[in-house]
Each structure stands twice: as structure tokens, then as C-alpha cells.
Amino acid sequence: MLRVDYLTVPGLPALSFEVAAGECLAVEGPSGCGKTRLLRAIADLDPAGGYVLLEGVERREMNGPQWRRHVRYVSAEPAWWAPTARAHFPPSDRLERLLTALALDIGLVDRPLAELSTGERQRLALVRALADEPGVLLLDEPTSALDATASALVEELIRFQLLAERIVLLVSHDGPLVQRLAHARLLLAGAPEPRLRAAGVAAA
Q1: How is 80-128 classified by DSSP, letter by letter?
Q2: Which residues of the chain carry a pLDDT beneath 50?
Q3: Most buried by CB count within 10 Å: which residue of 107, 121, 149, 199?
Q4: Domain containing 115: what range?
Q5: Is 164 exposed, middle or buried (0-12, 13-18, 19+ CB in 10 A)?
Q6: How much is the pLDDT for 189?
Q7: Is residue 128 part of a domain?
Q8: What DSSP state is assigned to residue 12?
């Protein structure tokens, strides 16, 4: 269970909600309303008041890298700090299977990242995020640079994470994708207060 209690993110009122294992919460609202800021606050990448707990453990009980080992933010525009992708992957016997699931050739991890397409880098970033099996995935526009075929593979991989009892918070402008994956929706704008809708996710 991921529990957010009175989380204060700049530009948003205090937010409280819960997401159970195996559920996907879609975070919705117009551009600039705070969707990315919320995901980054939950990942403890940006300062935010309030509380975020995973299985009863509050984020301040761990240092940042330890928390993000369990609660993983995947940006729409992933950053890389080495010339090739291989240096970014943790040791894992899942790497080849994840690459195959997203129709990526194993050889891509040794090619200069600057030579890869935006879509290839986006899919590699998702592989990087999943390789060490975090319990929570905070996905910020995971299919924004992908064609229909690649998007379908990403959707299937997200669905598999839910079947594996992982928690997913999803930001996406792809309405049909959200409709198929989300168990609940958190609307950040367009209502007097952020509004949470759906079964299995309770507003505080």
C-alpha cells in the first residue's frame, strides 16, 4: 500500500490518498497543473511537506536513494549520465527479457545514446526503471514518444507489473491508455479541490 497524507506540493492543496498493490492510479489534469511535481514529490526528488508511506514506512525513514529503490520515478524525458545505456542498468538477469518485451535489441545498450531515437531512449529508460523490481512505479508520459506498436508493448509491460502486485501512478495524455489501465483517477484541476474517483482507492 502506498499512502499519501497531506502532501503539500507547490501549487497544489494538500493531497491525501491511498493506492493498493496491483492498482494503477491515473493522475490527470491540464498541462502545468502539477502532475509531474506530484510524482517527483512522492519519489522524494523535490521538497514537499506531509507524509508518504510505503507498507507503513515513511519516506523520511530512509535516505533518498534507498526510498527511490522502492519508489521509482520515470520521467517523460529521461536523463543519462554515461555515453551508452549499459552503465545505467543495475546487475539483473531480467535485462534481456525486459528488452525483448519492448522489442529492443540487446545491442542497443552498447550503442551511443546520442545515436538512438527518442522512442528507443524512452523504452530503455523504462527497462532501467524496472530492472531491479521497485514496488512503486511513477510513470510520467511513458508512451509520449512512441508509435502505436511500441505503445502497445509498454502498456502490456505495465499491465504485467500490476499483475505482479506493483503499484503504478500514471500520468498520460493518452486517454484510451488511461481508460484501459487505471483503477482510479486523481483529477488535479477542473474542480474546487483535487478529486479522486474510483473503487479501491480511498480519499482521506
Answers
A1: --SSBSGGGSPS-TTHHHHHHHTT--GGGGGSBGGGS-HHHHHHHHHHH
A2: 191, 199-204
A3: 121
A4: 2-197
A5: exposed
A6: 78
A7: yes
A8: S
Give the pLDDT score at 148: 97
How high is the pLDDT of residue 197?
65
b/e map of 18-57 (b: 16 or more CB within 10 Å)?
bbbeebbbbbbbeeebbbbbbbbbbbbbeebeeebbbeee
pLDDT at site 184: 97
CATH number for the domain including 118? Answer: 3.40.50.300
Q: Are 43 and 68 in contact (CB under 8 A)?
A: yes
Cβ neighbors of 90 (< 8 A, separation 6 or more) are 131, 132
Is residue 118 domain-resident? Answer: yes
Is residue 203 domain-resident? no
- For residue 204, is it within any domain? no
Q: State how many domains the chain has.
A: 1
